[in-house]
């Protein structure tokens, strides 16, 4: 039996424990160290920093469930007194799941670790098990499928941080950039997001859940839209059964291999018992921002000096699975990434609050967040910028592979959207603010223009 260490600390040292790093989920980090590291005490770190948990030998995947970073009032409204009762009873009663190949009758995933805000399950590695577990999650839960073997955390190299630092240092307000980012059109964003959610009469999208056929339809549509702006797009599968990643590229004119990457996730989650998963905010808003940037690139006729990729990931809701696969591919290819920015939930704020921009307080490269904050003050001064604990979207996959990255989010605070992970997450509702969505998309686009450099037509 192997042992898992669950700790509040992210170990960056080159210890035997950090070699077994599985990832950070909510406020906890998981490590699966080698047997020698744990048993023989041949460890250079104190095991006391966390809980030690045994993992059954037939486990192929761990499934971590924790509370998302929600506003207190929202969390207490959603969370029952016994938060695990429902999940446990449905698991022990066996959930009949049709995964398209066979019915799994007696699904059972042992619980390895539990607190009031988190639970760890041992899976034997079939996509149907993810569906079984995920379908039992409450809306305030975030689930992460964690595959073996661990990939040790790669720190972002000093040179890469210095490169972002030098962009930051020479940053000046640029008139051309101000007019380019203002091409972004709210009526067009409305059209795009309502196609993605199925709110538009001409859209037949019911759900963009990773396993739903309509998610594939959405992937092809997104690729088509972005290709029409001059990019080359590819649908890249990463795991059987999951809707693919959409990777679109504009080749740079300076002949270097440097790359600037903007992303969002286009998969979504709905409510228990409903097949609708419109994902208008999570993350139809981020997807729409990426589409708006692509459309503006196409309309303006600019080209970039550096290579640029716009990526729409699948499998985010099952544990950042699409971005994990792509970040690993880019690390294997020794990609020269200047920076990457993930957009996840951009449109909602509490009614009465000013428009905001949230940047992650733990996961990511502080220099990239600083750059985004400064660019926001130039081109979208109406945004109130601050930190958010709503961490852990797809930028985390890049962060863990040592790429300079950050995230943009809709609030300078925790998640306040009452339709989070809910089948009611449409765009036509109180608190869904297209002006904020445009303001944040302008910041993403301006950061891209500053970081990649561009040639006017
Ligand atoms: C704005 O940026 C573009 C692209 O880097 C550059 O060609 C142009 O000179 C800049 N404009 C000003 C006023 O600095
Ligand atoms: C990466 O790109 C930068 C330009 O942004 C360039 O200066 C550097 O030489 C490149 N690094 C490698 C290893 O090619
Ligand atoms: C938005 O919803 C309201 C009802 O809540 C409806 O009257 C209105 O027509 C909807 N707008 C659009 C553009 O669908
Ligand atoms: Zn999301």
From TrEMBL:
Alphabetical GO biological process terms: proteolysis
PANTHER family linked: METALLOPEPTIDASE M28 FAMILY MEMBER, PEPTIDASE M28 DOMAIN-CONTAINING PROTEIN
SUPFAM superfamilies: Zn-dependent exopeptidases
High-level lineage: Eukaryota, Fungi, Dikarya, Basidiomycota, Agaricomycotina
Cofactor requirement: Zn(2+)
Stated family: Belongs to the peptidase M28 family. M28B subfamily.
Keyword vocabulary terms for this entry: Hydrolase, Metal-binding, Protease, Zinc
Pfam families, alphabetized: Peptidase_M28 (PF04389)
Enzyme nomenclature, EC number: 3.4.-.-
Organism listed in the record: Sanghuangporus baumii
Broad EC category: hydrolase
Molecular function terms from GO: metal ion binding; metalloexopeptidase activity
Protein's UniProt keywords contain Iron: no
Protein name according to UniProt: Peptide hydrolase
Domain named Peptidase M28: residues: 245-429
């Amino acid at each position: 039996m192997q042992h898992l260490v669950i700790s509040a600390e992210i170990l960056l040292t080159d210890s035997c424990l950090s070699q077994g790093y599985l990832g950070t989920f909510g406020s906890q980090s998981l490590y699966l160290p080698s047997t020698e590291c744990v048993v023989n005490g041949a460890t250079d770190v104190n095991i006391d920093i966390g809980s030690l948990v045994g993992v059954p030998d037939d486990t192929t995947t761990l499934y971590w469930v924790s509370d998302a970073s929600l506003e207190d009032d929202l969390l207490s409204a959603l969370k029952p007194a016994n938060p695990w009762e429902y999940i446990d009873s449905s698991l022990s009663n066996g959930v009949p799941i049709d995964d398209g190949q066979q019915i799994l009758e007696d699904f059972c995933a042992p619980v390895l670790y539990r607190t009031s805000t988190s639970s760890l399950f041992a899976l034997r590695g079939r996509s149907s098990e993810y569906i079984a577990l995920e379908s039992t999650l409450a809306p305030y839960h975030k689930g992460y499928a964690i595959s073996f073997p661990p990939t040790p955390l790669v720190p972002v190299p000093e040179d890469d941080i210095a490169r972002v630092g030098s962009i930051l240092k020479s940053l000046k307000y640029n008139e051309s950039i101000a007019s380019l980012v203002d091409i972004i059109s709210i009526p067009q964003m409305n059209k795009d997001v309502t196609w993605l959610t199925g709110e538009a009469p001409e859209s037949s999208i019911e759900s963009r859940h990773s396993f739903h056929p309509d998610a594939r339809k959405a992937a092809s549509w997104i690729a088509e839209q972005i290709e029409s702006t001059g990019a080359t797009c590819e649908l890249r599968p990463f795991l059987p059964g999951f809707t693919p990643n959409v990777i679109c590229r504009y080749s740079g004119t300076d002949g270097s291999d440097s790359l600037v990457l903007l992303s969002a996730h286009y998969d979504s989650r709905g409510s228990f018992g409903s097949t609708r998963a419109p994902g208008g905010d999570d993350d139809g808003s981020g997807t729409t921002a990426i589409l708006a940037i692509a459309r503006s690139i196409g309309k303006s006729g600019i080209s970039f000096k550096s290579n640029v990729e716009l990526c729409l990931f699948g499998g985010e809701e099952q544990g950042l699975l699409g971005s994990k696969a792509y970040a690993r591919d880019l690390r294997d290819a020794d990609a020269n990434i200047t920076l990457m920015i993930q957009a996840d939930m951009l449109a909602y704020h509490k009614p009465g609050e000013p428009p905001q921009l949230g940047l992650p307080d733990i996961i990511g490269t502080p220099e990239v967040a600083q750059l985004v904050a400064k660019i926001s003050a130039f081109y979208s001064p109406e945004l109130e910028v601050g930190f958010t604990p709503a961490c852990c979207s797809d930028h985390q996959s890049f962060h863990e592979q040592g790429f300079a990255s950050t995230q943009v989010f809709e609030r300078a605070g925790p998640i306040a959207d009452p339709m989070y992970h809910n089948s009611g997450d449409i765009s036509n509702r109180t608190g869904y603010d297209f002006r904020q969505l445009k303001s944040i998309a302008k910041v993403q686009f301006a950061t891209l223009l500053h970081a990649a450099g561009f040639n006017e037509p």
